[in-house]
C-alpha cells in the first residue's frame, strides 16, 4: 500500500476521554472548535496560517463574542479534522489509501489552498493521489470504497470518477503486461512434463488470466460496481466472456444461497437491486458470451424477488437464444402462486416458443443468403429436443401437471428434433404411472405423442410388456418390430453415449430409471383360447431369439393388423382404447376379422 508522510514535528495531540482533544504546549490554547461531538482546544496562529475558512470563522466568532466555533457536517468527521490540524502545526501525518479521501475533502472544506500558503495540504494530497494512489490497482479500489462516507464532497472533487477511470483502464491492460498484485483464488493451470530420464515433474504455469480483475472489484458496493463495469464496457477492449465472468462472480459473492435469505425483509430490496443491475450490465450481444445456466439462475432469482418485467423479459430473450446449452436442472424453475405445479412449465414453454421463433427467423435469413449448413443449423435443435424429453420425464412426476401442459410442451419442438423417442416414452410412462385417474381417451391422446417407429430395441421391449400403455399401443410396438425384423432393418440405437460426460451421466440415470420400471411390469395375457397356443409359441421364440423379436403366426399378425387400425371403422372403436389387462382380441366380431384381413395385409405392406 502506498503512503505519504507530511510534517516533521512529533505528534503533540492528546485525548481527554472520547470527546476532548488538545495540544500539549507551553502556550495556552486560544480557540475551541467543535467537530461533531469532539472539542478541539487549539491555537489560532498555526490554523489561520493554512486555512482560509478558519480565518473567516474566527473573525465571525470574535465579532459575536463567541468562544467556540461549530463546524456542522464536517466531511470526514473528527479524524479528518485532526489530520488537517496536525498538518497546520507541522506535526507528522501519514496519508494512505484509507484516509486520503477524507483528508482531501476536509482540506477542501477548510479551504487549504495555494492562495493561502504555498505547498498547502490540497496540493500535497493531489500529488499523492495522482502519482501513487491512482497508479496502484488495489489502492484505487480501496480509495473508491472510502468515497461513499464523504459524499457528495468526493463526487464533486471528481475523486470517484478518477478512481473509476483508473480501475477501468487497468482492466483492459494486456495480461502479459500485468506487474501489480491482484487477488486470484482459482487454481493456476498445471502442466505435466516428462523429463528426459522418464521421471515426471509438475511445472506451474504462472500466467495472468484474462479475468484476473473480477474478484477484486467484487468488494465494491452495487452502485459503485455498476459504474466501474459501465466504464469497463465503454472502453470497448473487454470481450463479453470476461464481462459475464465478472457478473457471475459478483452474483455468487453477494447473492445468498438460501431462498429464505433471498426473500427476507432485510435483504430483499438489496438483492432485487443487485439482480436488476446485473441484468442491466449483461453484454449487448444477447446471443453470445453468458452461459445459459447462469442466465437461468438469474431468472429463478428474478422471479423469486419479483424484479421488474423488463429485466425478466431481457433474460427470457437471452435464454431462448442459448436454450440448447441448458440442462434439465437449469430448467426446473419453481412455480409461484397461483400456480399449483411444482415447476413453472408455462415459463419453459414460453422459452421454447421463443427459441423456435428465433430459429425460424434464422432459417429464413440463411435461405436468403443461400447458406445450407445442416450440421450447425440442426445440431442445436436436436439438443433442445433431447432436453425437452428429459424435462418432461422430470416433471411427469408432478401430480398437478395437467395433460394439456404436457402435450403442449412435447409438441413445442418439431418432430425431426427428436429422432429417437425413448426419452419421450419414459416421460409418458412416468406420467401414466403418476396419473392413474386418466380416462382411456386421455391415455390414447397422451400416447399418440409417441411414434413407435422411433423407439430403440430396449424401449420397444419395455413398451411391449408395459401394462400402463393401452393395448393398441402395445400391439403397434409388436407389429412394427415384426415388420422391421422381416424387412431386415437394423433397429434404432441410442447414440447419446458419443456425447459429453454430462450426457453420459444422464444416460446412466435414465437406464437406472428404466430398470426400476422393469421390476414393476408384467406380461400381457391374451385370453383368446383359439390363439393362446400360438401366442405362447411366439413369446417362446422371442425369448430364444438373439434380437428378442420373431415373426408371429399369420393369424396373430392379422389380429395385430386389425387392432392397429390405420383406417376409420367400428373395429377401431372396439380395440383402440382397450388396456392389456382389461380386454382381449376376443372382443372383436368374427365377421369383422375376416373382412379386414385383406385391408390389414395391404396396410402392412405399405409400412414395410
UniProtKB/TrEMBL annotation:
The record's listing under CDD domains reads: BTB_POZ_NPY3-like
Q: Supply the SMART domains for this chain.
A: BTB (SM00225)
Can the keyword Thylakoid be found in this entry's annotation? no
Protein's recorded name: NPH3 domain-containing protein
Instruction: Note the PANTHER family from the entry.
Output: OS12G0117600 PROTEIN (PTHR32370)
Which GO BP terms, alphabetically? protein ubiquitination
Q: Which SUPFAM superfamilies match?
A: POZ domain
- Pathway participation: Protein modification; protein ubiquitination
User: Which family would the database say this protein is a member of?
Assistant: Belongs to the NPH3 family.
Q: Does the keyword Zinc apply?
A: no
Coiled-coil region list: none
> What are the BTB domain coordinates in residue numbering?
29-97
Stretch list, region Disordered: 494-513, 564-608
Query: What keywords appear on the UniProt entry?
Result: Ubl conjugation pathway
InterPro entries per UniProt: BTB/POZ_dom (IPR000210), NPH3/RPT2-like (IPR043454), NPH3_dom (IPR027356), SKP1/BTB/POZ_sf (IPR011333)
| Compositional bias segments (type: Low complexity) | 576-587
| NPH3 domain residues | 211-484
Family annotation (Gene3D superfamilies)? Potassium Channel Kv1.1, Chain A
